[in-house]
């Protein structure tokens, strides 16, 4: 049981003993050290409901509260807050137990099957900054859920279908690439632009492109093969980005729009059979009462176009059914831009209405805001174009290399390059992950690469300090008995003991920024401890205990950063 769960259970039992059965205990971390480590704030609400004096009820609850061996002090404050200070021995045991467990006490029961749809770029073009957030937020969540012991199924719902691919395959033929072994597609973006220009200017080419769309959808072997080759090149571009970002997606996780193609007529038929479809200006749509416009009219969710073509919504319905049915998932996560909010609300509502998903399956749109430039507008190149992800990552590494070279000019260049990779990529990822995902955020090189504040370099640096302590210490027992005597030791152990609660919160709310804030506090508490308590100069059991505490901090920091997909360094 986590510390929070344990305290909540004990306070709930005491509330019940004092007459407030089923009253929520409302246990949370204390806002200030004067208020102890945790506060139970449920008494006020319970007293109000039962029309009792809150201080009197608090006294009864405290009298009934069983925290022997857990708390060293329990106090009533203000109108009826209960302040709890944990016993050093209890904290020491909790930390020791966690450190002996590969999941650091954060295993979740029962384990679920979780589908997580993330990255999911459109393969007609190259990955740009618009794909960064989905890719790294999704990857962090997938790692956290897997760490808890859930079965995680990654689904890269790439855009690999539709009219654009007719144009692109036709252009492969036009540029006489169809017969070549290697496609000259180093620059997908330029290829797309050239194809689009030809499409707009050359009517015969546009006709051919349209003919190719029909052939592609009809399963024409030659066009399908061209299309497949184009996709292979485009996916290879994505995979190069994933590798640089340390993102765990592989080819096996690709389940693009095209994979649902054969299922689309069935989706439409099912909706029709259930009487959910309406014809509206020749198109097949669903009107959902839940979604009305300003005039109070039900809004249409388009399923099939007038010309019979299918849409993004149609393949998402098929994907939804596949994930809940075939994949038998308990929870479906979609890490997609907040601007697609209405689409997902309609998708989930319709999916339930049509019984494509069982009642118990959770569907969540893990929405995120826009990445902004320093001017506060959506992030663009100076000339106003979209920024390719590859270029952004190059710049991150370049800047980090200059930084590392300035700090540590004597290090071999190879070494500085590898540090710069970890720091530069880590900084970009962390800057994103540390913001609340639903807000827009300003992408600012100087802040993210700073060694101070809530940044990746600060955390990576804290880890190198720990690593250097271990090097200087020589061999020691990582699991030596912890003796917490100083306030700074208590504070660090308290932080460590919260790890399982924190991971549960990140997973439940799908918010990686909680983990960032936690790690930042952990690094800060380690720093304070290291200033206040000599480690290497301490003696005997005190030295052993403090080294073991450092080992617990290092292990937790490294694990936490790994869950964010950020590497640590032994030196920098
Ligand atoms: N390819 C889409 C885009 O770039 C994102 C797909 C997200 N996933 C989904 N199942 N709709 O906007």
Automatic annotation (TrEMBL):
Position of sequence motif 'HIGH' region: 121-131
**What's the EC number here?**
6.1.1.19
**Enzyme class, first EC level, given as a word:** ligase
Residue intervals of the DALR anticodon binding domain:
459-572
GO terms, molecular function: arginine-tRNA ligase activity
Which InterPro entries does this UniProt record tie to the protein?
A: aa-tRNA-synth_I_CS, Arg-tRNA-ligase, Arg-tRNA-synth_N, Arg-tRNA-synth_N_sf, ArgRS_core, DALR_anticod-bd, Rossmann-like_a/b/a_fold, tRNAsynth_Ia_anticodon-bd
Provide the alphabetized UniProt keywords: Aminoacyl-tRNA synthetase, ATP-binding, Cytoplasm, Ligase, Nucleotide-binding, Protein biosynthesis, Signal
* Record has Aminoacyl-tRNA synthetase as a keyword: yes
Which subcellular locations apply to this protein?
Cytoplasm
Q: Which residues form the signal peptide?
A: 1-23
Cross-referenced Gene3D superfamilies? Arginyl tRNA synthetase N-terminal domain, HUPs, Isoleucyl-tRNA Synthetase, Domain 1
Arginyl tRNA synthetase N-terminal domain ranges (all copies)? 1-86
A Pfam family that this protein carries is: DALR_1
What does the record give as the reaction this protein catalyses? tRNA(Arg) + L-arginine + ATP = L-arginyl-tRNA(Arg) + AMP + diphosphate
Quaternary state and partners of this protein? Answer: Monomer.
Q: NCBIfam families, per this entry?
A: argS
- Which family does the record claim for this protein? Belongs to the class-I aminoacyl-tRNA synthetase family.
State the PANTHER family in the record: ARGININE--TRNA LIGASE, CYTOPLASMIC, ARGINYL-TRNA SYNTHETASE
Name of the protein in question:
Arginine--tRNA ligase
Organism whose genome encodes this protein: Chitiniphilus purpureus
